[in-house]
């Protein structure tokens, strides 16, 4: 999956360019008050936006123990947005890269999981 995420095509698609990312204790201190704050209303507003260029991607790593997929799925199931029924009935599709299964994607309007 890392190989896919580092491709120019993928990085361009998610608008990260050639930016490098790192973590530090300093960032943790500044983000401390945001960790438990809800963004549900913000996400719903973006999903219901009339701007077709607004798309939302939720990515869960297979081994992520902090924000595991079931938690993300539960959050998304409880959103109130115009594509909720589509999301609830949509099936997860396979994502292949170089003929290897790399993940799954579920789409409902401008929401990608």
TrEMBL record:
<dbReference type="InterPro" id="IPR029058">
    <property type="entry name" value="AB_hydrolase_fold"/>
</dbReference>
<dbReference type="GO" id="GO:0004185">
    <property type="term" value="F:serine-type carboxypeptidase activity"/>
</dbReference>
<dbReference type="Pfam" id="PF00450">
    <property type="entry name" value="Peptidase_S10"/>
</dbReference>
<protein>
    <submittedName>
        <fullName>Venom serine carboxypeptidase-like</fullName>
    </submittedName>
</protein>
<comment type="similarity">
    <text>Belongs to the peptidase S10 family.</text>
</comment>
<dbReference type="GO" id="GO:0006508">
    <property type="term" value="P:proteolysis"/>
</dbReference>
<dbReference type="InterPro" id="IPR001563">
    <property type="entry name" value="Peptidase_S10"/>
</dbReference>
């Amino acid at each position: 999956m890392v190989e896919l995420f580092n491709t120019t095509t993928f990085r361009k698609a998610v608008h990260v360019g050639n930016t490098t990312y790192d973590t530090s204790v300093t960032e943790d201190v500044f983000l401390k008050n945001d960790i438990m704050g809800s963004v549900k209303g913000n996400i719903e507003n973006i999903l219901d936006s009339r701007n077709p260029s607004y798309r939302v991607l939720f990515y869960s790593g297979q081994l992520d123990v902090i924000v595991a997929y079931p938690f993300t799925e539960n959050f998304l199931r409880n959103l109130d947005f115009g594509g909720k029924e589509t999301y609830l009935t949509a099936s997860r599709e396979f994502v292949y890269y170089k003929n290897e299964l790399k993940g799954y994607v579920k789409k409902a309007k401008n929401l990608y999981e």
